Amino acid sequence: MKLLTAAQTREADAFTIQEEGISSTELMERAAKAFAGWFENKFPPSEEVFVFCGPGNNGGDGLVVARLLHQRHYKVQVLVVGDTQKASADFKVNLEQLPKEVPQNHIKSEADLVRLPEKACVIDALFGTGLNRPVTGVYAKVIEQLNQYDNTITSIDMPSGLYTDSQTPAEGAIIKADYTISFQLPKQAFFLSQHEVYVGEWHVVPIGLSEQFISQTQTNLFFTTAKDVAHLLKPRKKFSHKGIYGHALLLCGGFGKIGAAVLAARGCLRAGVGLLTVQAPSAGYTVLQTAVPEAMTLADKHRKHLSELPQEMDKFNVIGVGPGLGTERVTKSTIGQLLATSSHPLVIDADAINIISSSEKLKAQLKRNQLIFTPHPKEFERLIGKSNNDYDRLKDMLEFCQEYDCYVVLKGNNTALGTPDGEIYFNTTGNPGMATGGTGDVLTGIITGFVAQNYTLKEACLLGVYLHGLAADLALNTVGEVSMTASDVVDHLPQAILQLQQVT
Ligand SMILES: NC(=O)C1=CN([C@@H]2O[C@H](COP(=O)(O)OP(=O)(O)OC[C@H]3O[C@@H](n4cnc5c(N)ncnc54)[C@H](OP(=O)(O)O)[C@@H]3O)[C@@H](O)[C@H]2O)[C@H](O)CC1
Ligand SMILES: [K+]
């Protein structure tokens, strides 16, 4: 699904209004109804509600929400912040329509700030997508005060003060919402970990913005839903044999980290690979043969570290390399040999990334292969250097993707896939239970397994990342976030694939 910028969202509003022949206040009514519907499901009418309204249409939404909640018997108060002379037309219309029974206060300066009852709910309608500069002055005072209180804050469309699609300047105050309810589509800002503290838990409510407009709009930013990836899954042919589903090679594991090879191998097999060979240090031979009997194991001549490539490289159609390898000199030179001689698609993770990061010579070899990198943020930093903020990191990622004609799976809360064409796809599955050793190894195996089956590199990344997160989400039911291990994730991969196959 596409992500729209603030400017594109404004155009979508205008287009919808024209297409449907409705007024802007009608669209505002629709948006506020959608928000109020979510709010009613979440908070019972016993809660007192304070709606803080800014001067624009976000504030206008707040006024309609206050009216609607009042009609549903919530005890609502409205606090209009700032200068109402400058308020938007739809704000003014809805201020007129606010029932007399709803108390209204005006906060013009710091002196007008009010204390809130302990249990009251706050609705933040100060600013939405129309924010065009950092929030300062009386608005900032209100935001700072609300952030200090323990009251639950639900933001309309955006946490006020946060820019929708670019870095918010440091001097601006930003609401720290518990919930953000976004209209029609999420915003790019929601997918960046630096914003977690402001956005809180986000939900999207539909408000009927023009599908035609959205499908015509050009963007390089997407978020991945089940519908986006389900159709990528290829059904198995009736006259199947293992040769059709590829032969993957995993170069993984080192002394004390043979488990990384086991996890990657299990991920690869569960992703449906036809044949799998794992080359591992000889100390890992028995472990691998026992733990993953479906995989063929090649024992490296070195007992503890990867030190050689298999003899017959041509029979493999993809190589996954990195998990558990370590960065010993012999392993570095083996990676060098791999990059210099192989023309396979490569899925490069963990220590293989670290090894490449430390050598300009190795980086120079990269352009020979089709490549997928799967770094976590620290590995990514080693590869391309430190970025100032999450937006810059994404920009740096795309530059890297273009320079090396490669894909980067930047792992995190919302794993971001960067493509050589300059697109970014934010994943929507997964949970904090995955923040545990070995889950990345599983992902490397899964993506390698999909490439082996002739999925394009982009499809393999999108599917792999989505299913990996979905498997972890399914594991939540049985093991929860705290106890989740990488093995739980791989154990739930079959269920995740079955679930995705049901999506039409
Ligand atoms: N997109 C939809 O589907 C719908 C969205 N709606 C809601 O509308 C807002 C966007 O409304 P908009 O009026 O464009 O913008 P805001 O309400 O966010 O704020 C704009 C006003 O605030 C002033 N401004 C901007 N930045 C600051 C600041 N840092 N400090 C003070 N004032 C600021 C600006 O005026 P200026 O002339 O001073 O620049 C505007 O007055 C969207 O988020 C939704 O909530 C609709 O309801 C319909 C559907
Ligand atoms: K808001």
Structure report:
The chain is α/β, with parallel strands linked by helices. The chain has two domains: 6-219, Rossmann fold (3-Layer(aba) Sandwich), CATH 3.40.50.10260; 236-401 and 421-454, Ribokinase (UDP-N-acetylmuramoyl-L-alanine:D-glutamate ligase). Helix content is 42%, strand content 15%. The chain contains 19 helices and 17 strands. The protein has helices at 6-20, 24-42, 57-71, 89-96, 137-148, 196-199, 211-216, 226-230, 258-270, 285-291, 329-341, 350-357, 360-365, 377-384, 390-404, 439-452, 457-483, 486-491, 493-502, and strands at residues 48-53, 75-81, 104-107, 121-125, 153-156, 179-183, 201-205, 221-224, 247-251, 275-280, 296-299, 318-321, 346-348, 371-373, 407-410, 416-418, 424-427. Strands 8-17-16-15-14-13-12-9-10-11 form a ten-stranded mixed sheet. The chain has a seven-stranded parallel sheet with strand order 3-2-1-4-5-6-7, with helices on both faces. Helix 2 (24-42) packs across helix 3, helix 9 (258-270) packs across helix 16 and helix 17 (457-483) packs across helix 19 (493-502). The two termini are 15 Å apart. The model has no long low-confidence stretch (mean pLDDT 96). It binds ligand LZDS7PUF and potassium ion (K). Potassium ion binds at residues 58, 124-128, 155-158, 160.
